[in-house]
């Protein structure tokens, strides 16, 4: 690997074919801050079709938890994602489906998408679903998950997509929280060659949900399932004779579009509510600029529809822009760890967007599988979900992108609806590990804990001092929790819960959750920095770092380390790793403890749940908090039994 450089200027190749250059970005950003009403009004006209114009571009009072964008404006999101493209794109591919089994694929044109969505919408209507009703979607990653979301949007129902990997308890909690009366699911899903019993999970969940009157079942595998004539509806049979025409419901910009629960890394999941107008504008606009999307390109985001990334950047953003979006049912390692690259080759993917955890996993199996695939169609790479450690960034850039594709890092949250901080391709230099600069209209600031603004090169709490159209409007059913979680800490500002550093060029570097920023002997240190240092060591595959109370230093550094397949645990290696961090970051950052961790506790979206690791490091193993979103609970038991008990 080449020497790790701190900054990559935008290459000439990237500049030559991107929409933006640095001067355009600066000018547009300036206008978006100085004349937000003009800026957003123009963008809303450019990106979205409205039945009726809005009364006011924005009416926001963060102190009183009131956020309105384009209210009075009338639109329909499914119309914007489908119908308006039909005049020119009826026969263009809207969705490329790639099944878990590599021989299983399908292309769906915009016309076909229209017909599927209308039939689905008519089915929902037939079951009595009306504007404002909540519909739970618990599905595999197949085109029907998109049809279901858009069908809800078409009739003004509010969808709540629950990740298909969640268990009965998690589905039940989400159905009850939003009082969903209709559930859309499939018989089974297939991931990595294994079948997951979705329908039977739903059956178990709704046993305790008396208001659920209809379960619409898509046939995916044809596997055996229980059938309750009173409630269950076979999707393909039911839509067969339904009309492929369904007039879109005229929605106010501020009518809710969906509810989505956060991934639960820091606490109990929150039912984040997004509304029609601001959300779809923000999703479309960020998709266009951040991924530099061009007509005719094949765009692939590997997220699941159950996460916000799947909402904004598999379905809503790309389809609003008339793009071809790839929906992948499988996992990165099936049939082998070259699957991502094989799919890129097979469908000539131009833009590829994935998470650091996937990149690290694929990097650890070596370069050979990447090199075997023809990746010449790739033009741009993206990353989301957590800070990317520079080691993984370089592998992604050099081995996957052949040093030709800009990498866009994208910092955002379920709550933000779309990307807020990013290295806009062509306009902003790339610094491996930095999230980048604010998107248009986004006004980040760094605060100290008392709410004082920290200027210039600095480190602190990341807040947004102004609203943007894609911002969440409330927590479903609990407006006070919305206020308490995001707006109460620093009145008039949105608190992200993340810490960040700003460098001399105005780039933001996310240091992790605020709870994950350590203060070791007076040095503020992001857990992400120590983790990045650890994974630089050739024996380390993954690392998670937490603080614990330390009598002298304030906080001590406790690390969990997963070794590469070919490395083995030893006291020598333990000492070596501590010295390695001390050399990389300075003596103050030297870990106090390193515990070997065959696996790390992660959410189903692949995020490390440091709050659980913190409890283990603090030896408070009886109060781990909400563990319902853990991907594999047995990992935690192992870590508890192997924990280092300290004084
Ligand atoms: P919960 O809010 O329930 O604890 P969560 O925060 O994990 O769950 P998400 O909304 O999926 O749920 O994740 C958003 C968080 O992910 C951000 O606050 C940030 O900590 C992290 N994140 C996302 N993208 C990036 C990125 N590009 N760089 C650094 N961190 C990122
Ligand atoms: Mg969060």
Automatic annotation (TrEMBL):
Residues 25-81 form the Acetyl-coenzyme A synthetase N-terminal domain. It catalyses: acetate + ATP + CoA = acetyl-CoA + AMP + diphosphate. ATP binds at residues 385-387, 409-414, 498, 513, 524. The modification N6-acetyllysine is found at residue 607. NCBIfam families: Ac_CoA_lig_AcsA (TIGR02188), PRK00174.1 (NF001208). Catalyzes the conversion of acetate into acetyl-CoA (AcCoA), an essential intermediate at the junction of anabolic and catabolic pathways. AcsA undergoes a two-step reaction. In the first half reaction, AcsA combines acetate with ATP to form acetyl-adenylate (AcAMP) intermediate. In the second half reaction, it can then transfer the acetyl group from AcAMP to the sulfhydryl group of CoA, forming the product AcCoA. This is Acetyl-coenzyme A synthetase. The gene is acs.
């Amino acid at each position: 690997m080449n020497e790790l450089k701190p900054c990559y200027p935008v290459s000439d190749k990237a500049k030559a074919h991107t929409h933006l250059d640095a001067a355009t970005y600066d000018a547009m950003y300036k206008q978006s801050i100085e004349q937000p009403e003009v800026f957003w009004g123009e963008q809303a006209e450019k990106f979205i079709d409205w039945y009726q114009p809005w009364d006011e571009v924005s009416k926001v009072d963060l102190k009183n938890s009131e956020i309105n964008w384009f209210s009075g404006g009338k639109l329909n999101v499914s119309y914007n994602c489908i119908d308006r493209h039909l005049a020119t794109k009826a026969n263009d591919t809207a969705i490329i489906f790639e099944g878990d089994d590599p021989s299983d694929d399908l292309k769906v044109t915009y016309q076909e998408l229209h017909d599927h969505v209308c039939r689905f919408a008519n089915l929902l209507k037939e079951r009595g679903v009306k504007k404002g009703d909540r519909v739970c979607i618990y599905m595999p990653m197949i085109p029907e998950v998109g049809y279901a979301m858009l069908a809800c949007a078409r009739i003004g129902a509010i969808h709540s997509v629950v990740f298909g990997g969640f268990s009965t308890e998690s589905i039940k909690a989400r159905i009850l929280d939003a009082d969903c009366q209709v559930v859309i699911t499939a018989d089974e899903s297939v991931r990595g060659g294994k079948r997951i019993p979705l329908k039977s999970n739903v059956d178990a969940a709704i046993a305790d949900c008396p208001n659920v009157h209809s379960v619409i079942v898509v046939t995916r595998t044809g596997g055996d399932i229980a059938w309750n004539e009173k409630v269950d509806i076979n999707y393909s049979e039911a839509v067969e004779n339904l009309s492929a025409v369904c007039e879109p419901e005229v929605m106010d910009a501020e009518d809710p579009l969906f509810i989505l629960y956060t991934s639960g890394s820091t606490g109990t999941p929150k039912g984040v509510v997004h509304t029609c107008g601001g959300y779809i504008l923000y999703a479309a606009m960020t998709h266009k600029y951040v991924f530099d999307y061009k007509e005719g390109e094949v765009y692939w985001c590997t997220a699941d529809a159950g996460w916000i990334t799947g909402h904004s950047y598999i379905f809503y953003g790309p389809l609003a822009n008339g793009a071809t979006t790839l929906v992948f049912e499988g996992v990165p390692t099936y049939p082998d760890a070259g699957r991502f690259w094989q799919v890129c080759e097979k469908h000539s993917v131009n833009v590829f967007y994935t998470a650091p955890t996937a990149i690290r996993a694929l990097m650890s199996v070596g370069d050979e599988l990447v090199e075997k695939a023809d990746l010449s169609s790739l033009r741009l790479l993206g990353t989301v979900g957590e800070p990317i450690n520079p080691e993984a960034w370089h592998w992604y850039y050099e081995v996957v992108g052949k040093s030709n594709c800009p990498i866009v890092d994208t910092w955002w949250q379920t709550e933000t609806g779309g990307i807020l901080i990013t290295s806009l391709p062509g306009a902003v230099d790339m610094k491996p590990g930095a999230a980048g600069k604010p998107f248009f209209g986004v006004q980040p600031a760094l605060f100290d804990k008392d709410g004082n603004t920290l200027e210039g090169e600095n480190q602190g709490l990341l807040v947004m001092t102004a609203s943007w159209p894609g911002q969440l409007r409330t927590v479903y059913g609990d407006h006070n929790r919305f206020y308490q979680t995001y707006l109460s800490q620093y009145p008039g500002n949105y608190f992200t819960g993340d810490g960040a550093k700003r460098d001399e060029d105005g780039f933001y570097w996310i240091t992790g959750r605020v709870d994950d920023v350590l203060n070791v002997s007076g040095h503020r240190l992001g857990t992400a920095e120590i983790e990045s240092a650890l994974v630089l060591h050739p024996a380390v595959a993954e690392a998670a770092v937490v603080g614990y109370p330390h009598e002298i230093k304030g906080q001590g550094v406790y690390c969990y380390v997963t070794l590469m397949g070919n490395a083995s645990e030893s006291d020598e290696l333990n000492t070596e790793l501590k010295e390695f961090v001390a050399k990389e970051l300075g003596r103050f950052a030297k870990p106090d403890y390193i515990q070997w961790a065959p696996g790390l506790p992660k959410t189903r979206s692949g995020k490390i749940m440091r709050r659980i690791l913190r409890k283990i490091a603090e030896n408070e193993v009886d109060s781990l908090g909400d563990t319902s979103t853990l991907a594999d609970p047995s990992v935690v038991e192992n870590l508890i039994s192997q924990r280092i008990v300290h004084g």
